[in-house]
Here is the input.
Amino acid sequence: MTGAVSGRVDIRSGTGRIATGPVPGVLLILAAWEAGGRLLTEAFVLAAPSEVAAYLVQEWALMLRALGATLGNAAAGFAIGNLAAVALAGIALIWPRAERVVTGLALFVFCLPLVATGPILRVFFGPGAGPQIALAALAVYYTTLIPLLVGLRAAPDSWFDLVHSYGRGRLAALVHVRAMAALPYLFAGLQIAAPAAFLGAMVGEFTGAERGMGVLTIRAIRALDVEMTWALATVATAVSILAYLAIGSLARRILLEAPPVILAAPPAAGGHRSAAWVDGMLVLAVALGLWAGAIRVFDLNPFFAKGPGDVFTALVLAPDAADTRAAIGEALAETAVFLLPGYLAGLVAGAGLAVLLVLVPAVAGIAMPLAIALRSVPIVTTAPLVVLLLGRGATGTITLVAVMVFFPTFVACLQGLRQAPGQIMAVLDSYAAGPLTRLVRVRIPAMLPAFFASARMAVPASILAVTVVEWLATGSGIGSLMALSASLSDYDMLWSAVVLVAALSALGYGAVGWAERRVLARYAPEQIA
Amino acid sequence: MAPEDTTPPPKVVCTALAKTFGGGTEAVRPIDLTFAAGRTTALVGPSGCGKSTLLRMIAGLEPPSAGTIEIGGAPPAETRRRAGLSMAFQDPSLLPWRSVRGNIELALRLARCRVAQSEIEQLIALVGLDGFADTRPAELSGGMRQRAAMARALATRPGLLLLDEPFGAVDELTRSQLAQDLPRIWQARGTTTILVTHSVSEAVCLSDRVIVLSARPAEIVDDIRIDLDRPRLETTARSDAAALLIDRVFAALASGMAAARPPVAAQ
Here is the structure.
């Protein structure tokens, strides 16, 4: 199985430093893959690397055209999404009170299921590259916005005192201190964003583009073309890893150091409980206003552009509202059966393996660079493979969700574990504490912020994974319901499902954030100061 | 053009200056202080007594809760606008992405000050960082960073120099070297210098006057004129005259720690 993960998940950057190099790990995987491919020739699930290579040589012109189209869309979306992120961060900086609303809205948009926004954007834009670019931008802006906000606050107060002591104001502080201090964080965000843009463009192409990697993927799945499916996943993986590494090396060249490890600041830090509640309502109000306003301003066709009122009618007032609710509820229940075990399994496996590797440091040297590279792979593009390998039943879907959650959690936890403060470790050493004591007393508490930040970001990511698999492969659950509603032009159902999924996703994110704040208040109070 | 070419070193006058923080912590009780133009004054006191707050108020980085500050007859904000002061912080606050020279050049740029490269080189040599001009702060030791920050503070030729424990991380030997070299600069320039320090001997050897503050909220316990000869050498610190003064500062410190006393007006 090609282990992989979407860059959309995670806003944390690796150190990017490849110490022992990923070569041993890559060779190991290639060997296992080749052996598996030879053994399973009859099963039509796995193409060996040699077969993939042969396919790529034979069909290079087709692949190159598709790759060119997808790369172009991804690049456009990457640019637009990152500009939007910089603009949003700018608003939050100039007007700090707006920050919670900006990040709340941004989170809500990030939680929109791409599976459903794709078809809606397709209707909106018509044929052409619009949806691909829009989805690439949507996949990117949040992963850039959050590190950027952290980075803009990363400079210590005394640097600002220095600027002010020479009689200069906020502009000079922004130019000479804040922007410079935020650069490494921006690069860390861009590094994750590049593969995410590629993923977004591919999902956009699933909705019916003329050309591109996504179009070929759909064709390959329909035709059960094993070599083509594997070849496409291989190319997508290679492109994502290359983009990730390229931005990492650019950052090192410019910054002369690796991008920092970034933890997303826990949402709604400090303040009064009522203030967070008020902010939540404000975000909701602004979101509803923008939604209704956009439909009016762009004068969208009411047949497919449903406003907040329409969704409320469809879910509550309409004669068939009970049926709509029942259909969505049933689909959500089906999805939850796959989603929750997969999410929890991914978290446990990621954190567990990280802990294990710290106890056996020799293996970590090989596993870490490999995991950093693999987590940049848009896992959703490998969904067809997972389904090919594990079938359309529960196992395949749960595994995919787990893998989606696993990689970012693993990388984050491993970095968290390594961040254990050296001086405290030295204190424990001076009492001759064993490796287990050090792990339990120092390393695991030091890992918690990374673990929770990862668990939080994994909520929308796992929902993306499960809905894509349901859409492309299993034909059950909320992902399938949304795809079906889109193809049947049942836009009341589609919009209702989108709103509910986004709301549940944001609630899940908030719930993990709540647990995070409670735990960090004890173990890492500096993180929520 | 350096600011001091146009303006003489300022006299600093604090009148009924007080600071109470948001949480109700009283950092500085109403205090009257005058720092003579062109002189070096040391503020000594126990940790957390509010002496750094006093310095930050004079720099205009912290608004006073009550009272006024005049620097050469103008409020701190105006002095800062004219780039008439510079401050060396407890934490060296060097920007990590700039070399030692780069940090000094940034200060000059912020202060809109033009200074010849050779003068920057001289300053770097003076603080003992020869050969480290193009090194980034991360590769310097704590003491070297503080010396770089000192060079930066001096580079803009300020009329008023505010030093907040500038030598905390510098080793003893370098410290006594700097204590001889640096005052020469600010005395040659006639800079008004206010020095906050924990080191009693440093306060005595560097200054014309030592003000001893009590535990928080800061009040003046003693105000001591230091009439040791200049230039002060390494031997000054071990002279009998210095020893007497150091004893007097220690005694004042001890009484300031013991109990809050009624405010004593200075000068």
Summary: Residues 2 and 472 of chain A are 18 Å apart (CA to CA). Residues 1-19, 261-274 of chain A have pLDDT under 50 and may be disordered. Chain A touches chain B at residues 156, 158-159, 161-168, 172, 176-177, 180, 255-256 (CB under 8 Å).
